[in-house]
Amino acid sequence: MAKRALITGITGQDGSYLAEHLLGLGYQVWGVLRHDSDPAASRIAHLVGDLSFTRAEFDDSASLLSAVERARPDEIYNLAGTSYVPTTWRHAELTTEVNGMGVLRMLEAIRVVCGLDESTAGGGIRFYQASSSEMFGKVTETPQHETTIFHPRSPYGVAKTYGHHITRNYRESFGMYAVSGIMFNHESPRRGSEFVTRKITLAAANIKLGHQDKLHLGNLDAQRDWGYAGDYVKAMHLMLQQPTPTDYVIGTGTLHSVRETARIAFETVGLDWRDHVVVDPDLIRPAEVETLCANPAKAHAELGWKPSLTFEELIQTMAEADLRRLSTG
Ligand code: GDP
């Protein structure tokens, strides 16, 4: 019988790639949607006919419980939540509700559906939690690995750190197969336009087509460990297929700057970034996380996971996709 997966945050960048990946592996895929979400007008519009849906809210435990009861999944991928870090200062409490408490509510739903308590162990449902490199924040060592100390620097990072710890706690308390992937930044043509890589590739395409003249950016020297989202969802799936549940850092282990991103994106569309990029001091962040760089050795060794695209290929792919999309209207 086909395995069943339930994905929260299915309309997001990662949710859409994960749904495609799992459908390709023969899974029956369910998506959790919020009450006002229209999948036909989202990143999964092309998959709607192949998916099943159930509606739930992350601040409503009963709705999450009934979503798990309806889908009866073998695997749950918890990808729901706010993801753009700077705006989490503006709604810190909501971020904590969804990115933090939402994880606890999901774990409780699994515990209830599987009938687990302190005297019973295991349960049939495997759980993946989307943890984040933002948990490392003010880093104590570089590169960061699975046991590097967390020092989150934003409400987003703090909420994700709670989600990470509570997932491990349910694994240890109830013997649940519950794991976290500590994922570094991952991008794609489906990345939200507020994130710097996509902001740059969209602008390069718009400038090429004469729709825009300048691109305003903040700190050009900021560096990140950027990978391709399509590779990262494969790691999520692999993490739920192991003999023993454990957490993994997923990243490329290489750093690139905003300046390099701009150079590659503009070159891809046949322009020179220096003719179009303007540094805007208002876009420079006051309290930045320090340089985050992954040590993905454990994922390489135990999951056999490796990125399939180089950074240059990733940015080229994004710039080409934006140019194609904008050219054809
Ligand atoms: P984050 O790592 O989740 O914050 O991902 P972002 O893509 O939003 O930002 C990555 C880095 O790019 C950060 O260090 C930003 O300070 C830097 N950056 C420089 N200019 C910009 C900009 O115009 N927009 C954004 N979003 N980031 C910028």
TrEMBL record:
Q: Where is the NAD(P)-binding domain?
A: 6-318
Q: Output the Gene Ontology terms for molecular function.
A: GDP-mannose 4,6-dehydratase activity; NADP+ binding
Output the GO biological process annotations, alphabetical, semicolon-separated.
'de novo' GDP-L-fucose biosynthetic process
Keywords carried by this UniProt record: Lyase, NADP
Q: Which residues form the active site?
A: T161
Q: Which cofactor does it need?
A: NADP(+)
Q: Catalytic activity, per the record? A: GDP-alpha-D-mannose = GDP-4-dehydro-alpha-D-rhamnose + H2O
* EC primary class: lyase
* Pfam families found in the cross-reference section: GDP_Man_Dehyd (PF16363)
Is Lyase among the key words of this record? yes
EC number(s) recorded for this UniProt protein = 4.2.1.47
**InterPro entries xrefs:** GDP_Man_deHydtase, NAD(P)-bd_dom, NAD(P)-bd_dom_sf
The entry's family comment says: Belongs to the NAD(P)-dependent epimerase/dehydratase family. GDP-mannose 4,6-dehydratase subfamily.
Function recorded in the entry = Catalyzes the conversion of GDP-D-mannose to GDP-4-dehydro-6-deoxy-D-mannose.
Which protein are we looking at? GDP-mannose 4,6-dehydratase
Q: What is the lineage of its organism?
A: Bacteria, Bacillati, Actinomycetota, Actinomycetes, Pseudonocardiales
